Amino acid sequence: MIIIILGVLCLVFFIENARELRTFRIRTYRIFSHKLKGIQKKRIVFLSDLHNCSYGKNNGRLLAAVRRSRPDLILIGGDMLVRKNGTSYAKTLKFLTRLTAMCPVYYANGNHEQKLKEEPERYEQSYAAYKKHLEEAGIIFLENEAVIWKTGRARIRISGLEIPLSAYEKLGKRKLSVRQIEDRIGRSDPSYQILLAHNPAYVQQYEAWGADLVLSGHVHGGLVGLPWIGGVISPDFRLFPAYSAGIYRDPKTDVVVSRGLGIHSVPIRFMNPAELVVLELRGDD
Q1: pLDDT at 264
Q2: Whether the model pTM is above 0.70
Q3: Residue 234, phi then psi, degrees to nearest 5
Q4: What is the average per-residue pLDDT within 125-131?
Q5: Which of 36, 68, 132, 140 could form a disulfide with 283 if both were Cys (CB 3.0 to 4.6 A apart)?
Q6: Positive or negative: CA dihedral 51, 159, 199, 117
Q7: How far is the CA of 29 from the CAs of 73, 223, 233, 254, in angstroms?
Q8: Which structural domain range is residue 222 located in?
């Protein structure tokens, strides 16, 4: 009997895992702040961790979902490709370049893009070509840089943060200080601060820096999601990461961690569907 039960559970796991690897959902969060003056509803689509995966021919299903979301702005949180020599990024490039017809698009790197950039000889200069292609299509990269988005009576600063690659090390002791963040993107100011920070392991430092809204990914939802517990394991092999998926509300900071849109290396998703994140910004004045 035990063998039969285990067999059924394994079958359920493999069927559901296969289903979740082929599909995605749209997840919407409402963000309120007194700093968002005069904003009734502005919609931001947040894309993260596609990892060169595809939903339909030329990512048609994903593109249609973005279009249906009617974004005023698209923010990309990194790891849209896979750090690997000999990999074609054509389908990802085709998808991303079509986004600029809808609204402005800003792109902050994840650890995969950052590794390609910082080790060009090892990765055949592929990052330079990738970035050039997207910039020519109108996508703006935020590599430890910021832009100001004025909408309504609000002044919104959008910063793209690249932390040291050592801060992604597996199993090692994590180190990142507020000073290191300031050295990269400067100090926060009275504007509403949106921080694109790929790795959610450093939320406390992002909050101390002054972020009003942190947008992260990287963890892929913890691969397997457990009710009332959350994700099981992070890409750096840490069990039950504190921030794996969803929205975490603090008096000063909202943190949104996307489950991501793709996978790499370990093809597992269980009770952890891929997602496209939509943010509705509203002033509470």
Answers
A1: 83
A2: yes
A3: -95, 165
A4: 90
A5: 36
A6: positive
A7: 15, 22, 24, 10
A8: 2-283
Q: Residues 140-159: what's their mean pLDDT?
A: 95
Q: Count up the domains in the chain and report the number.
A: 1
**Res 110 pLDDT > 80:** yes
Q: What's the chain's average pLDDT? A: 91
Cβ-contact 194, 176 below 8 angstroms: no
Long-range Cβ pairs for the range 31-35 (8 Å, 24+):
31/213, 31/254, 31/279, 31/280, 31/281, 31/282, 32/282, 32/283, 32/284, 33/192, 33/212, 33/281, 33/283, 33/284, 34/283, 34/284, 34/285, 35/154, 35/190, 35/191, 35/192, 35/212, 35/283
Question: For 249-260, what is the mean pLDDT?
Answer: 95
At residue 67, does pLDDT exceed 80?
A: yes
275/169: higher pLDDT? 275
The HSE-up count of residue 75 (CA atoms within 13 Å, CB side) is 29
Buried b (16+ CB within 10 A) or exposed e, 160-171: bbbbeeebbeee
**Mean pLDDT within 235-255:** 91
Rounded Cα–Cα distance for residues 110 and 71 (Å):
22
How far apart, in whole angstroms, are the C-alpha atoms of residue 24 and residue 274?
A: 5
- Buried-state track 39-73, b at ≥16 Cβ within 10 A, e below 16: beebbbbbbbbbbbbbbeeebeebbebbeebebbb
Look up the CATH number of the domain holding residue 113. 3.60.21.10
Pick from 283, 268, 206: which is nearest to 20 by CA?
268
Say if CB 74 and CB 45 are below 8 A apart.
yes
Do residues 67 and 99 touch, judged by C-beta distance below 8 A? no
